[in-house]
């Protein structure tokens, strides 16, 4: 079986000559929690204040569900799209290739704010186009961000914690197969659901 990575070290390999760009490409795994939990809390407040608790909960769950399929689509069709140009290949390496080459790099396992904040803003305005009622949208996007945070934390845990049993062990095994067996299967990180639906799961 070919080796699908360069190093399993937890240390970071330098990507940029610029110290500023290098620092922007790294982040401690807890940083997204400090950024997005207050945002989720504020969106929840706005939603409940302008709507109903039941409506809030319903759209929160919907947002979470939409995150799961968004995670799958981004991973499969964006992060694993391999361009042919030199610049395209460089961008591919920066956004995802480095993670496959150094899968246990502890500073590059969650998305840095330099990438996640612009992406969150783009998705905020995109999803906002589909909602006439702001209260529903705030709940939806709060649920979407909860899904994102769970993905980030689970992804870090999969690469750094040894789960003995239960669902997290099964999810970790699924993701490890993606890294160390076949990177063209197993695109779901926090769940294998969409891999099963779209037939990109690993054969049993």
Automatic annotation (TrEMBL):
Main location per the UniProt record: endoplasmic reticulum
Domain Fatty acid hydroxylase: 61-199
GO terms of biological process kind: fatty acid biosynthetic process
Any one cellular-component term (Gene Ontology): membrane
Pfam families reported for this sequence: FA_hydroxylase (PF04116)
Lineage, top ranks: Bacteria, Pseudomonadati, Bacteroidota, Chitinophagia, Chitinophagales
Keyword Nucleus appears in the UniProt entry: no
UniProt subcellular location: Endoplasmic reticulum membrane
Annotated InterPro entries: Fatty_acid_hydroxylase, Scs7
Membrane association type: Multi-pass membrane protein
Source domain of life: Bacteria
GO MF annotations in UniProt: fatty acid 2-hydroxylase activity; iron ion binding
Segments traversing the membrane: 27-48, 54-74, 109-131, 137-158
Cofactor(s) needed by this chain: Zn(2+)
PANTHER family, per database record: FATTY ACID 2-HYDROXYLASE, FATTY ACID HYDROXYLASE
Record-given protein name: Fatty acid hydroxylase
Keywords: Endoplasmic reticulum, Fatty acid biosynthesis, Fatty acid metabolism, Lipid biosynthesis, Lipid metabolism, Membrane, Metal-binding, Oxidoreductase, Transmembrane, Transmembrane helix, Zinc
Keyword flag Transmembrane: yes
């Amino acid at each position: 079986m070919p080796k699908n990575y360069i190093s399993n070290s937890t240390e970071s390999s330098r990507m940029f000559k610029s110290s500023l760009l290098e620092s922007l490409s790294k982040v401690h795994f807890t940083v997204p929690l400090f950024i997005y939990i207050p945002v989720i809390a504020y969106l929840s407040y706005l939603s409940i204040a302008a709507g109903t608790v039941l409506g809030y909960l319903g759209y929160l769950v919907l947002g979470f569900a939409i995150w799961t399929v968004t995670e799958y689509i981004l991973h499969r069709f964006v992060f694993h799209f391999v361009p042919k140009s030199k610049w395209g290949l460089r961008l591919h390496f920066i956004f995802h290739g480095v993670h496959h080459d150094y899968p246990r790099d502890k500073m590059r396992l969650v998305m840095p704010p330099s990438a996640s904040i612009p992406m969150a803003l783009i998705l905020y305005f995109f999803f906002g186009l589909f909602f006439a009622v702001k209260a529903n949208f705030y709940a939806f996007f709060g649920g979407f961000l909860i899904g994102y945070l769970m993905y980030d934390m689970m992804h870090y845990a999969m690469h750094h914690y040894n789960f003995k049993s239960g669902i997290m062990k099964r999810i970790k095994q699924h993701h490890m197969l993606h890294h160390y067996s076949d990177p063209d299967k197993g695109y779901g990180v926090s769940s294998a659901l969409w891999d099963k639906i779209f037939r990109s799961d690993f054969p049993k």
